[in-house]
């Protein structure tokens, strides 16, 4: 990876020029992601989703939606009394808190892994700096479209004194282990559910991934990128295999992070399960849902793969036999918990790593555009 700038030691890096219309690209990315979420809610039935998530109770209590036609509010009353009854069921908020803690631990495990990547490549950064680099850009990746979030990790490391090539290798390792954990647990799912059922469950997420690849790259770009990534993966793979203890440690971080995500997702679904709201899904199906979500967002179009993850997750649950309203509800609740946990972790890291350098959003967009341009010309 070439450097996006040249900087003297100890100076603030000079980023690549910010492309025109970058704000429009952000708006377009969010429009795509929110449109996909809206479509998911639409096909699942907005009334049912609102009732199962208990949002309907908030809307009725706030006078936004009338309970009956005789009450004040916008639009007509709730179409079915059963929806109102479902929205009144209690939520086990203690389980929601447990899920948030598990998601925080998942982020901590990935931050530890990213720190080991940095140390393995000779980066002289503290754990606070590398953890900030991971968590900060983990949140930023949910704000910017395409793969700018990955570019943000490299940019943040460079702003903290890491050489551009080394920063790029650290980020590439992170992406590689994300694919590793997704593939590993896909195999686990195939063993638990059987190869035919497992492959059928992952059919729709693979379609979403293929569509994302088709929309974001040209045929020549796909071939060139595949060749370069295979070569880089082979080089890094050989390096790690020569150090089996290090590979085992890094793999354990990935396994722990995925399992924490799996347990957190199941815990969230149980927190909202009640007498009238049945969101029971087998743990093996939840596991495959997470795998499907990860596959669908491997090539993000919207910020953080917003909409891609949710559709991949929900379609796996639906294909596995869950009703689509229930599948969509579980997916949306899990995504909401992910975003809340990410925001809380970012706040914690901001307090711990106040001295860490963090580039502005315009800088991240500019460096991402610079890397993309070089990738097209090399």
Q: What would you note in describing this structure?
A:
With 378 residues, the chain is mostly helical. The protein has 16 helices and no strands. It is globular. The chain folds into 2 domains: 270 residues, no CATH class; 34 residues, no CATH class. Helices cover 72% and strands 0% of the residues. The N terminus and C terminus are likely disordered.
Query: Helix and strand string, N-terminal first?
Result: HHHHHHHHHHHHHHHH
Q: Rg to the nearest angstrom? A: 22 Å
Give the class from helix and strand content and strand pairing: mainly alpha
> Treating each run of at least 4 consecutive H or I residues as one helix, how many helices?
16
Strand content: under 5%
- Fraction of residues in helices? over 70%
What is the overall shape? globular
Question: Uncertain spans, ≥5 residues at pLDDT below 50?
Answer: 1-14, 372-378
- Average pLDDT for all residues: 81
* N-to-C CA distance: 11 Å
Q: Report the major sheet.
A: none
- Work out the number of β strands: 0
| Domain tally | 2
């Amino acid at each position: 990876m070439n450097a996006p700038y040249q900087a003297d030691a100890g100076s603030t890096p000079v980023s690549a020029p910010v492309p025109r219309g970058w704000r429009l690209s952000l708006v377009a990315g969010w429009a795509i992601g929110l449109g996909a979420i809206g479509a998911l809610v639409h096909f699942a039935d907005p009334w049912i989703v609102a009732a199962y998530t208990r949002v309907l109770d908030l809307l009725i209590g706030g006078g936004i939606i009338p309970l009956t036609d005789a009450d004040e509010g916008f639009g007509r009353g709730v179409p079915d009394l059963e929806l109102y009854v479902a929205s009144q069921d209690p939520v086990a908020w203690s389980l929601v808190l447990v899920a948030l803690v598990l998601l925080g631990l998942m982020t901590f495990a990935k931050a530890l892994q990213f720190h080991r990547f940095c140390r393995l490549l000779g980066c002289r950064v503290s754990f606070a700096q590398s953890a900030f680099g991971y968590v900060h850009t983990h949140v930023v990746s949910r704000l910017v479209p395409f793969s700018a979030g990955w570019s943000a990790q490299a940019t943040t490391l460079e702003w903290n004194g890491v050489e551009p090539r080394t920063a790029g290798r650290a980020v590439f390792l992170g992406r590689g282990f994300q694919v590793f954990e997704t593939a590993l647990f896909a195999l686990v799912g195939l063993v638990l559910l059987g190869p035919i059922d497992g492959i059928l469950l992952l059919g729709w997420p693979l379609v979403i991934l293929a569509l994302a690849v088709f929309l974001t790259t040209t045929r020549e770009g796909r071939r060139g990128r595949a060749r370069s990534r295979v070569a880089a993966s082979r080089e890094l793979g050989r390096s790690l295999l020569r150090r089996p203890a290090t590979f085992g440690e890094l793999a354990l971080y990935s396994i722990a992070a995925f399992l924490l995500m799996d347990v957190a997702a199941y815990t969230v679904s149980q927190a909202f399960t009640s007498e009238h709201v049945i969101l029971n899904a087998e743990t093996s199906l939840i596991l495959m849902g997470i795998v499907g979500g990860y596959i669908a967002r491997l090539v993000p179009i919207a910020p953080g793969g917003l909409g891609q993850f949710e559709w991949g997750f929900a379609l796996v649950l639906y294909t596995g036999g869950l009703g689509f309203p229930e599948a969509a509800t579980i997916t949306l609740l899990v995504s909401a918990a992910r975003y809340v946990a990410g925001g809380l972790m970012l706040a914690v890291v901001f307090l711990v790593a106040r001295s860490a350098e963090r580039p502005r959003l315009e800088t991240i967009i500019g460096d991402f555009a610079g890397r993309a341009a070089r990738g097209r010309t090399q």
